Amino acid sequence: MSQIAGSMKAWRLHAFGLENLVLENVSIPEPKSNEILIKVGAVSLNFRDKAIADGFYEPERVPNPLIPVSDAVGTIVKAGSDVKKFTAGDRVLSHLYSHWLDGAPSSNEPDFCLGTPFQGGLAEYMILEAESAVLAPSTITDEEAATLPIAALTAWFSLVTYGGLKAGDTVVLQGTGGVSIFGLQIAHALGAKVIVTTSSDDKGKKALELGADAIINYVKTPNWADEVLRLTNGVGADQLLEVVGGEGLNDSIEATRVAGRISVIGFLAGQTTNLNLMRVIFKQTLIQGIAVGHLKAFEEMNEAFDKYNIKPVIDTVYSFEQAIEAYQHLSKGAFGKIVIKVS
Ligand SMILES: NC(=O)c1ccc[n+]([C@@H]2O[C@H](COP(=O)([O-])OP(=O)(O)OC[C@H]3O[C@@H](n4cnc5c(N)ncnc54)[C@H](OP(=O)(O)O)[C@@H]3O)[C@@H](O)[C@H]2O)c1
């Protein structure tokens, strides 16, 4: 493989706060024997990246300086001597839980996450362990592929890997952010019925165009769980992706059927909740915490994206130099994903 040496441009965080995220020239890292060096094509932002930069996501784990952002796609330009899995020129994706390859998670998976505590991909080049990289789907662009590692895999792992989603099932998705829009696309492709809650009628229209069967404006209809029951003939949904968290988890229990599944993913409205345990008991609700997913599921998902021709929904693509604007856009809310084109 070609020799890569010299310096690269990288955004590095030197203290919490976006004002401390600085574009710098640094040395191109050298892959160890089990690693690959990729030329980064694009990265996408997740809520986690903003929370890390702002210092409220495991601040004690954040290295200084940090090249942030976990989700990246790139082309392999150099590989360590032991790498057999890929060849030069392969287009690969990063995998957040880089040591969780299959089966049940180990207790120390967060020790090996990209973008904290490992260095991330908001740079011209990035190091990945070869075993934890995954081929990108062939039918999508770099900008689209960069959206997959966290948001899409989280939705897929919740609905399909853990949830065993079947055609004809009903799924509730909260809002129109990254995870929920992927949940909509995946559930629709697999033949499920999809109900999306949103604060915006315009975003609701876009969700209908993507295949949603019903929209509930949760601002105009705060009792959105009652509306889900009405839409499901009083039964409730089979699955719900809980990205909002906080006290709303009680509404989600009401909106799902007896022995329905709630995947607890996000904490947009709070990291704690007062749960009505009697409702959980009587309804026998399955409440499953989700931490993205493992590599095997990522590979299965990528095959499904090619098979069903799923195109990730991107709100805006920013240039590499506009990284700060991209972070600021994420804070305001996006329809789908925010992407930064690197090369
Ligand atoms: N556990 C995991 O593995 C995992 C993985 C990925 C993400 N997450 C977490 O999941 C959450 C969502 O992530 P994301 O990347 O999808 O976020 P995002 O792209 O920033 O999505 C935010 C959207 O959520 C909707 N929303 C906000 N408050 C709401 C409410 N009270 N009710 C309904 N919808 C609401 C809004 O949609 P509308 O504008 O349509 O109202 C908003 O645009 C975050 O907390 C993130 O940290 C966890």
TrEMBL record:
| Stretches of the chain forming a coiled coil according to its record | none
**From what superkingdom does this record's organism come?**
Bacteria
Every copy of the Enoyl reductase (ER) domain together lies at 17-340
Entry's Gene Ontology molecular function annotations = oxidoreductase activity
**By what name is this protein known?**
NADPH:quinone reductase
- What species was this sequence derived from? Filimonas lacunae
